[in-house]
Design a protein that fits this description.
4 strands, Rossmann fold, Serine Threonine Protein Phosphatase 5, Tetratricopeptide repeat, 2 domains, 12 helices, four-stranded parallel sheet
Length: 241
C-alpha cells in the first residue's frame, strides 16, 4: 500500500470515532500505526478514543508515545491535559493546559494580547499591576473567575478584561478588581503602560487550583456567579420586554 494512504486510515478512524463505532475506530487507527509506526497524530487520536471509553491508562500511554515521538505536538499535550484534570492530577494537568494557546495549535481559540509586558509566571505581585485577559467564551470566563479571590491575596492591582455582558456582574462580584471591556483588537494599548504583568484567566488555576479542596471551593463560587449571571440576564430581558 502507498505510504500516503495512511492518511486515509486516520480520517476513517476519526469518522468511526465520531459515530461512536469504537472497535472499528481502534482497528483502523492500529492499521495506520502498522503502516507508519511514527504517525504521531494517530497515537493522539487513539488516546482520545481510549479516553472516551474510560480506558484511561491506555489513553495516557498513547499520549506519551505521541509526545515521545514529537515533544512539541500540541494536540497531544492538550488532550493529555484534559485526561489528567479529569483524573484529579491537577498540577500537571494545568501545566499541560497551557498548550491551548501554543502557536502550533491549529485549532486554538485563545490568543494572548499583543502587548510588551511579561506573562505572569507566579512572581510576587505585591505592589504590581496585572491584566487578566479573557479566553474563549462567557462560560470559560465565569468558570475561572473564582480564582480572582485567590489573586486578591497577592496585594496586586488587578485589571480584569471581560466580555461586555459580564462587566456589571464582575464589577459587583469582585469589587477589588478594576473591570474593563475586552479589547476587540487584543492590544490593550490604553492601559499597557500601567501594567507589570498579564495572564490569561484560564491560566490562573495553574497557581490556585492544584488540589481537590480548592477545586470544590471553586465549584461553589462558580455556581454562585452563574446564578447571579442568570438573574442579571433575566432582569435585562424583562426590562426589554
Amino acid at each position: 500500500m502507498r505510504p500516503d494512504y495512511v492518511e486515509v486510515f486516520l480520517n476513517l478512524g476519526d469518522l468511526f470515532l465520531e459515530q461512536n463505532r469504537y472497535q472499528d475506530a481502534e482497528n483502523t487507527y492500529k492499521s495506520a500505526i502498522k503502516l507508519r509506526p511514527d504517525f504521531v497524530q494517530v497515537y493522539s487520536n487513539l488516546g482520545n478514543l481510549f479516553k472516551q471509553q474510560k480506558r484511561y491508562q491506555a489513553a495516557e500511554d498513547c499520549y506519551l508515545i505521541a509526545l515521545e515521538l514529537s515533544p512539541d505536538y500540541v494536540d497531544a499535550h492538550f488532550n493529555r491535559s484534559m485526561l489528567l484534570l479529569s483524573q484529579g492530577y491537577f498540577q500537571k494537568g494545568w501545566e499541560e493546559y497551557e498548550s491551548r494557546f501554543h502557536v502550533n495549535n491549529e485549532n486554538r481559540q485563545t490568543f494572548p494580547p499583543e502587548i510588551r509586558v511579561p506573562l505572569w509566571q507566579g512572581e510576587s505581585l505585591s505592589g504590581r499591576c496585572i491584566l487578566i485577559w479573557p479566553e474563549q467564551g462567557v462560560g470559560d470566563e465565569i468558570m475561572f473567575a473564582s480564582c480572582l479571590y485567590d489573586l486578591k491575596n497577592s496585594k496586586a492591582q488587578i485589571i480584569l478584561a471581560c466580555d461586555i455582558r459580564l462587566r456589571d456582574l464582575f464589577s459587583r462580584s469582585f469589587p477589588f478588581v478594576k473591570v474593563v471591556d475586552k479589547d476587540p483588537l487584543n492590544r490593550y494599548q490604553k492601559i499597557e503602560s500601567s501594567l507589570d504583568y498579564h495572564c490569561g484567566i484560564g491560566s490562573l488555576p495553574k497557581f490556585f487550583r492544584n488540589n481537590l479542596n480548592t477545586i470544590i471551593q471553586s465549584v461553589k463560587q462558580c455556581i454562585l456567579i452563574k446564578r447571579f449571571y442568570q438573574i442579571f440576564c433575566d432582569i435585562k430581558l424583562n426590562c426589554i420586554q
